[in-house]
Each structure stands twice: as structure tokens, then as C-alpha cells.
Amino acid sequence: MTTEIKRAYRFALDVGPTQIEILQRYATASRCAYNFAHAFFLAHDRMWERGRNALMAAGMDRREATAKAPKVKRPGRDRAQAFWRATRGEQFIGPLREGEERRPVFAWWEKVHNRAYYTAFEDAAVAWQNHMNSRTERRAGAMMGKPHFKAQGRCRESFRIVHDVKNPSIRFTAPRRLRIPGGGGQDPFTVRLHHKASRLIALIEEGKAVITSVTVARHAHRWYASVLCTVHQHIPGQPTRRQRAAGRVGADLGVLNRLALTDPLTLTAGQDPQTLIGKPPYVASTERKLLRAERQMSRRRIKGAKQQSKGYEEAKAKVAKLKAQLAMRRASNLHLISKRLVQQYGEIALETLNVKGMTSSAKGTVDNPGRNVRAKAGLNRAILDASFGELNRQIEYKARWHGVTIARVPTRFASSRLCSNCGWKNTTQTLKDRTFRCLECNMVLDRDINAARNIKQHAVPVQ
């Protein structure tokens, strides 16, 4: 079966100082447009809050006042765009510093393509819509707070541009050249890719992929372009014969071992199959380098100084580079594990984890303070580093691409305390016990392997 899916192809860019200046200008314009739209939406929300607070001051409870507050017509992206077009280029209204002259608002707007602004307005509108749906309980999950302004120097430098697919302006002019609309004025400019995009170009020429948008972002010292495409991809109705012969595999996610499997998994050619997959050595080495670089940066920081030394800025850039490298290596390892799982097995049994509950703080309250707060904080960091949610997400969508079935056990299922051989439950087992010992059938097995076997036996297929 062939179906349409959204798929992003990410390329590193080789850009010079002139093009870096253009990309930074676009990213700054996108950030300013987002803040402009956010302030516009926030002003209307505060009008509604004033009416609700007046009812609460009159004696109504919060829920009743929220329901009976005077209605305020909330603007969308189109109204934000109209207000933007009406105010850009006007004289700045507000207090001036000594010797400062009045200047037009966003005087540089003509040097950036309009679509970079409009996508920022759309992002702000979607963020506010998600908040409103969460506030009115029309959105599942935890309560989403109000969106925030994007602060310069703290938010990621990025911008997104869309185009008309019938008259495309985003296209590849060569295997290592990507044309982006806009530039110094409205003229397009071409950026050089670090690697060839031959595979994507072949799909486009065959009519199997259509470019819909491009997102350019800076990650530490490198700029990247994510080309979003609508791809016509073949989705098999069932696993291959080799996958069906391999059957179901049980997987237990953990901190010490990133993945414990009931059956061996081959990650790379020439490597022995593994049932316990830990943190790869190249990730551990990068973490050690990052720890040393952060200590060096901390020593070079001058407390209370408005402007730091050149040595501190160099150390800060080194830390940012190592953090970007660590994130890419972690992501690469997760993609490798998830890809190999869906390629080698016909059904994957997983556990349903509540990561937010698992990483909650043990600090407690003033009246009832928590215990072992520092140890729990370290465990929380290790759980978040293991990326349980991201690995589950990757396995799920890649399983759909390969016709693989996903089976799950409930959140409260005691996979680590049950004996996978006879079903006896060990109620005294703690996190320190790395070996499971059954007092009924005398089975001795690694704790994580035992949990993976229980998940394999009790998991139920899901749609």
C-alpha cells in the first residue's frame, strides 16, 4: 500500500560570513514577528482576564467566573498579519533616551522575505490555540501554560519558509545546492550543503516527493536546513518472512542498560548480537569531555561582571559545540536501535512508561520534606538522558513504516518483580538488586532480562 507521509530531510550547511549574516537576519526577523504576534494575542487575553477577575472579586469562584466572563473575540493569525502590515514602518511611539531620535518600527522588514514573518505568526497562533484548548479542557494531557516571548540569545535561531508546491521556489539546483526564496531583498539565494542530497532529488524527479517547506536553524556552531516533504511511501501490509520467523521480541527500557531484550539484536554488520544494549562508548566519551569543558568555563567566569573575558567566551563556545555533538550522537544511537528493531522482528513488546511521574522531584514540602533528594535528582537526570519517550516514539512510527505490530503492558505492570518462569512476585526487591532470584523455582536471571521476558509474555497488541 502506498500512502502519503510527512518526512523531513536534514542537511548541514556550508555557509560563509555573508550568508551567515543573511540567515541571522532572517532568524532575528522571525523571532521579532513571533514576539509581535504573541504580544498582540496577550493583550486580548488580558482583556478577558480583567473581566474574569472582576467577577471573582464580586464573590464568584474561579470555575464559575471563567464560564461567565465577558466574551472577547480572540484574534488569529490573519488579524495579527493585518495589524503587522498596518504598523510596520511607522514612527516608534514611546519614551526616548537622551539624544535618541525617533525611528520607524521594524525598519529592516523589507530585507526579509514575507513568508518568514507569516510562518512566525502561524507558530504564535498555534501556541496560543494549544493553550486555550488546554485551558478549556479540550486538549488531552497536562495543563499547558501561556506561551512566552522568545528572548534574544536564549532561544534557538531559526526561521521557516513555505512555498506554493505548484510553483516551487524552494528547490535543489545541484546535488549540493539548495535554493531558498528571499535574500538581501526579495531575491533568492543558494546555500551549499555539507553532503549530497541525491537520494531526495531522485525521489522528487520520480514524482514520489514534493517539498512543502524548509526550516533553517543554528545548532551551536553549525547551520542546518530541514526540508519537509510530502513523500509517497510504500507501507507493507505485513512484516517480511524473516521478520515473521523472528516473531515477537520483548524490550525493557532502563538506565544502566538502555535496552534489555529477550532475543539478540544486531546493531551493526560484523558485530555480535546483543541482548543488553548500554550507552555507546562514543557518547560516554563526549559526556566526559563536556564535563571538563563546563568546569573550565565555570573557572573563567567573572562573577558580577557585565562583560566576560575573551577566554570565557571561547570556553562557552566550546561547551555549546560539545553539547550539540552529544545531542547528535545520542539521537544517532536512538535511530540505530529503533531501526534495527523494526527491521529484524515482526512484533515488538514494550512497556507504557509515565516519564513525567518517574522524574518528579523528591523535594517534598516544608511540612513533609522528602528524603534522598540529591540521589533522586541524579536518577531523574539519568532517566531523562535515556530518552524513554523519544525511543518509544521512534519505534512506533518506524513500526508503521515496516508493517510491524506494537504490543504494550500497562503502566503499573510489575515487570521487574515477577518471575518470568513461574510467576512468583518478589515484593522486597529494590533498585539495588540487579539479579532476580526466585524463591519458588530457584531461577536466577539478570533483572532487566527477566523484565523483558515478562513484557514479552503479557503485552497486548495495540492499534
UniProtKB/TrEMBL annotation:
Residues 240-360 form the Probable transposase IS891/IS1136/IS1341 domain. Residues 288-332 form a coiled coil. Keywords: Coiled coil, DNA recombination, DNA-binding, Endonuclease, Hydrolase, Nuclease, Plasmid, Transposition. The keyword Transcription does not apply. This is RNA-guided endonuclease InsQ/TnpB family protein. In the C-terminal section; belongs to the transposase 35 family. GO terms for molecular function: DNA binding; endonuclease activity. Residues 388-455 form the Cas12f1-like TNB domain. The keyword Electron transport does not apply. GO terms for biological process: DNA recombination; transposition. Pfam families: Cas12f1-like_TNB, OrfB_IS605. InterPro entries: Cas12f1-like_TNB, Transposase.
